[in-house]
Design goal:
By secondary structure, this protein is mainly alpha-helical. It is built from 6 helices and 2 strands, in the order ββαααααα. It has 2 domains: 44 residues, no CATH class; 85 residues. The protein has a two-stranded antiparallel sheet with strand order 1-2.
């Protein structure tokens, strides 16, 4: 019997002794699977990995981020834009705000919390901090328009850290 496993990621490595080995993972960045592909042990480890994948509770911001990534608004973006959004979500937004309560978005102080996060990121790079903040703003706008959040803390005027221009001079 042939079973198709969604998201399976295989990586081939050359070991120090010259031998080639293929490792299988449940998804990119996911846990390594045990056993040989097609075996009962392999299927069981895959099912266990998928079951352990955390589904965010309904009251946390991570759930809103997951819903946005499954929406047509996100899927209609260019592939390169989606890739950048996901990079910012995974590397800077989710680690900081994954368990942020959605009910706290109605509090005016939450905006200051997001701005403080952006300012901390700006130490490494202003442009990337602005980009990550605009990704978060897009998610807030999307969720507010669908009634998933009580308010949009990013709704006030734009405050950008980046002041440069990409405009080319006249030749």
């Amino acid at each position: 019997m042939h079973v198709r496993l969604k998201g399976l990621n295989s990586v081939t490595k050359r070991l120090a002794d010259g031998k080639t080995v293929t490792y299988h993972y449940a998804w990119k960045g996911g846990p390594r699977l045990l056993g040989k592909p097609g075996s009962a042990e392999f299927i069981a480890s895959y099912n266990e990995a998928v079951a352990s994948r955390r589904k965010a509770p309904a009251g946390e911001l991570l759930r809103i981020m997951q819903l946005y990534q499954a929406s047509s608004d996100f899927l209609d973006l260019a592939v390169s834009t989606r890739r950048e959004y996901i990079r910012h979500l995974r590397n800077s937004i989710e680690p900081e705000f994954r368990d942020f309560p959605i009910s706290a978005l109605a509090d005016r102080r939450s905006r200051a919390e997001f701005l403080a996060w952006r300012d901390r990121m700006a130490i490494k790079g202003r442009r990337q901090a602005d980009y990550a903040y605009s990704v978060l703003a897009r998610i807030f706008s999307w969720s507010f328009n669908r009634g998933l959040t009580p308010s949009n803390p990013r709704r006030a005027r734009r405050t950008s850290l980046q002041s440069g221009s990409r405009r080319q001079g006249m030749v």
